[in-house]
């Protein structure tokens, strides 16, 4: 099977970059062949990750992504940019805060939960490509 890669649209905004990055990492059903090149190309090797107040190493975060795909299906329900702060005149780099709502279905028992996540992502450029250099995320299940 050929490796799939992502080709950004010429006028992709910072918010769209972050939105599509997380879609490629988490929300394409059983698509680890897309996750691997996304991780390699669009995430800094020593990315700074903080999830619910806990610092994770890049390998630990990647294991979390792999485990998610092994055990669950995710479906993005909504996403909204809260704040976008460009760090260059062309707005190719910057800081993006988003709120998203998504469902997670356990593959083993079929149980589905709904979660909300607020993320703040720093996007920089490396070799002419946008990359995520840091992520702070607060995420929890929505109790209905």
List its salient traits.
144 residues; alpha+beta; Nuclear Transport Factor 2, Chain: A; globular
Q: Determine the mean pLDDT.
A: 90
Radius of gyration: 15 Å
Q: What is the global morphology? A: globular
Q: Got a strand count?
A: 6
CATH topology annotation: Nuclear Transport Factor 2, Chain: A
Task: Tell me the major beta sheet.
Answer: 6 strands, mixed
**Number of discrete domains:** 1
Structural notes for this entry:
By secondary structure, the chain is α+β, with helices and mostly antiparallel strands. It has a single domain (14-141), classed as Nuclear Transport Factor 2, Chain: A, CATH 3.10.450.50. 27% of the residues lie in helices and 47% in strands. A 6-stranded mixed β-sheet has the order 2-1-6-5-4-3. Strand 3 and strand 4 form a beta hairpin. It is globular. The protein starts with 13 loop residues before the first helix and ends with a strand. The model has no long low-confidence stretch (mean pLDDT 90).
């Amino acid at each position: 099977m050929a490796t799939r890669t992502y080709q950004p649209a010429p006028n992709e905004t910072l918010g769209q970059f972050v939105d599509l990055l997380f879609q490629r990492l988490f929300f394409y059903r059983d698509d680890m062949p897309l996750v691997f090149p996304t991780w390699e190309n669009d995430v800094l090797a020593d990315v700074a990750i903080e999830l619910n107040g806990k610092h994770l190493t890049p390998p630990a975060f990647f294991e979390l992504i792999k485990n998610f795909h092994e055990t669950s299906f995710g479906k993005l329900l909504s996403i909204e940019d809260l704040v976008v702060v460009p760090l260059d005149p062309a707005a190719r780099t910057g800081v993006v805060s988003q709120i998203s709502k998504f469902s997670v279905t356990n593959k083993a028992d079929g149980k589905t939960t709904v979660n909300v996540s607020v993320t703040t992502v720093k996007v920089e450029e490396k070799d002419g490509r946008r990359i995520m250099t840091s992520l702070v995320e607060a995420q929890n299940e929505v109790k209905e």
